[in-house]
Amino acid sequence: MLHGKRLMVVMPAFRAARTLELTWRGLPNEIVDRVLLVDDASHDETADIARSLGMDILLHETNLGYGANQKTCYEEALRDGADIIVMVHPDYQ
Known about the structure:
Elements: E1 7-13, H1 20-25, E2 34-39, H2 46-52, E3 56-59, H3 66-79, E4 84-87
């Protein structure tokens, strides 16, 4: 919680296995209530790494593209009742 608001980080991911953990470790996890990774049909270990870090995951069965991935992130965050939604790209930029 941040000032009484539910803060959710969403990550639109595609082949992010190499940088995902470093990105996650850079989050201010003490104030983040939920981290959701939406994997856009990656063929690497992105989803497995996200699970090992304790992230919630949604998987696209097929690659829908960046815009659709962002849309899924925001729809799920709003459905979950987040007050503050922060999109972080898991490429550690």
